[in-house]
Write a structure and sequence with these properties.
The structure is a single chain. By secondary structure, the chain is an alpha+beta fold. It has 2 domains: about 110-200, Roll (Pdz3 Domain), CATH 2.30.42.10; about 205-445 and about 455-465, 2-enoyl-CoA Hydratase, Chain A, domain 1 (Alpha-Beta Complex). It is about 25% helix and about 25% strand. The chain has helices spanning about 1-20, 30-40, 60-65, 75-80, 95-105, 140, 165-170, 230-240, 260-270, 285-295, 335-340, 425-435; strands at about 90-95, 105-110, 115-120, 125-135, 150-155, 155-160, 170-180, 185-195, 195-200, 205-210, 215-220, 245-250, 260, 280-285, 300-305, 320-325, 345-350, 360, 365, 380-385, 385-390, 405-410, 450-455, 465. The strands form 6 sheets. Strands 3, 4, 5, 6, 7, 8 and 23 form a 7-stranded antiparallel sheet that branches. Strands 10-11-12-16-17-22 form a 6-stranded mixed sheet, with helices on both faces. The relative contact order is 0.16.
Length: about 475
């Protein structure tokens, strides 16, 4: 505490001194100034980037001179990231915050076909795609695209690691379909043309109850932690609760993340008996960690709860065990739920090793406190930098290599099955364990290395984020 008071006093003296300087014009390079100050304050790896050091610049004039050396906001932003592509794979800068805000709530241009891409063979020179699920009321749904459909090309061009983004990123494209048999891709000559339009994805995709022996098994496929749909999430658990489920299979295979608060709600719905107890702890960069511990320690804790933010009571199942289906696309907030439930209940993970994203971000705007209110109206730039790491109640959060499943079952592209059908391979494995009838041990006839999927090729497709920054931290800027 004494150390923090000394730091705050030093900052106050520094701020008064800088105010008297004539070179205090932070409008000389406005977007650049916002980027540096935002990353200096909040970036998780701030201490590891020399140009973000609190001692790097003596005053605003020196900072301005440095910032003027960058040709664009993007060039500055990329230069300040720590080990880009290896350690920090996720921080982003966007020229229009509206696009970012929409993406974080599941709104983007879509034709409704959610797909995975895998390498065709060990040479890794070609890829093929398979349809994971189809969104309702979309062009893909209207044109009969179905889960399990295989495609090898777009616009009569075979897909490769070099061209997939340009081909599948177009607003309109034609898929070249194929069949899959024991790893062999055979073109069928059939095509389907798909058109994208702006679409808001409700992540509550499939909810149902299956009776097997004396078990009422709830199945819930949830595809994104989008806070706008928290009432729909709660309603889904109300449906499960009203049908007196004894067991739950939570399908997060294609869920690449979203809101930390929504993840806390989901964990509270699965359980219910841990209201007010610690769900997750947040770890920030050292200066913010010290500040929050001294001034706002509760900002570092996410607690199990019995109500949504608006006061609506949460529908909870009070379970002591949950089955979670995963794939390589299971990421961030999905992994948070798995990791942070483990200290409290039995979590059986069935599927593939997850992505391994144990860090989270927040949206920073060009405003005095980096919040949306009072932002600079001369531009629409915003940042989504990595600002925190999450750990569970046992202080564990080191799963950057992914969470290993209890039972490894890789999806077979020749037999994906129907979502929610008790015969669907991964769901069937969970049912077998629940009922004690044994886990079916099977594997695809040929395994393919994962490449990309329709969400992680989007700029904001694998975010785990907090909905707003805790108050007060903006006062820690070394240069006002």
């Amino acid at each position: 505490m004494k150390k923090m008071r000394s730091l705050m006093a030093s900052l106050l003296v520094g701020m008064l001194a800088f105010t008297a300087c004539e070179d205090m014009d932070d409008n000389a390079v406005p977007v650049h100034d916002f980027i540096w100050k935002g990353l200096n304050l909040y970036y998780l790896w701030q201490a590891d980037v020399p140009d973000l050091s609190d001692e790097r610049f003596a005053d605003q004039g020196q900072l301005n001179s440095y910032l003027e050396g960058f040709s664009s906001p993007e060039a500055l932003f990329e230069s300040l990231l720590y080990q880009r592509g290896t350690v920090d794979r996720w921080s982003v800068l966007v020229p229009d915050f509206r696009v970012l805000e929409n993406a974080l709530q599941g709104v983007s241009k879509s034709n409704g076909m959610e797909f995975g891409l895998v390498y065709t063979d060990a040479t890794q020179t070609a890829v093929f795609g398979y349809v994971r699920y189809v969104l309702p009321n979309t062009d893909a749904a209207a044109k009969g695209v179905q889960r399990g459909d295989i495609f090898y090309g777009v616009n009569d061009t075979p897909l490769t690691p070099d061209n997939y983004r340009s081909l599948l990123g177009a607003d309109t494209y034609t898929l070249n379909l194929a069949t899959y048999n024991n790893g062999t891709i055979t073109p069928t000559g059939t095509t389907v043309t798909l058109i994208k339009s702006e679409y808001a994805e409700n992540p509550v995709y499939n909810v149902q109850v299956t009776q097997v022996d004396n078990h009422r098994i709830g199945y819930f496929m949830y595809n994104g932690f989008y806070s706008n749909y928290d009432p729909d999430l709660n309603a889904a658990f109300g449906q499960l609760s009203s049908q007196n489920v004894t067991d739950l299979v939570l399908d997060l295979r294609y869920n690449s993340g979203g809101s930390v608060r929504t993840a806390t709600y989901l964990a509270s719905m699965i359980t219910g008996q841990f209201n007010g107890e610690l769900f997750a702890k947040q770890q920030w960069n050292s200066k913010l960690q010290d500040y929050y511990e001294d001034n706002n320690p509760e900002a570092l804790r996410n607690l199990f709860t019995n109500q949504l933010s608006g006061g609506t009571s949460i529908n909870s199942l009070n379970l002591n065990k949950v089955y979670i289906l995963t794939s390589r696309s299971t990421a961030s907030a999905s992994e948070l739920v798995i990791n942070c439930l483990k200290p409290y209940i039995d979590v059986v993970v069935i599927g593939d090793t997850t992505t391994g994203k144990n860090v989270g971000s927040v949206t920073l705007y060009d405003s005095p406190d980096f919040g949306r209110s009072g932002r600079d109206g001369s531009h629409r730039y915003a940042m989504q930098p990595i600002v925190l790491k999450t750990i569970n109640a046992d202080d564990f959060g080191d799963y950057s290599a992914g969470i290993t499943p209890t039972l490894e079952l890789i999806e077979d592209y020749g037999n994906l099955g129907v979502i929610g059908d008790p015969a669907e391979p991964l769901f069937a494995a969970a049912i077998g364990d629940i009922t004690g009838n044994g886990r079916p041990m099977w594997s695809p006839s040929k395994k393919h290395k994962n490449f990309k999927d329709s969400k992680n090729i989007l700029r904001f497709g694998t975010e785990m984020y907090i909905d707003e920054m805790p108050a007060g931290s903006a006062a820690l800027q070394p240069i006002p």
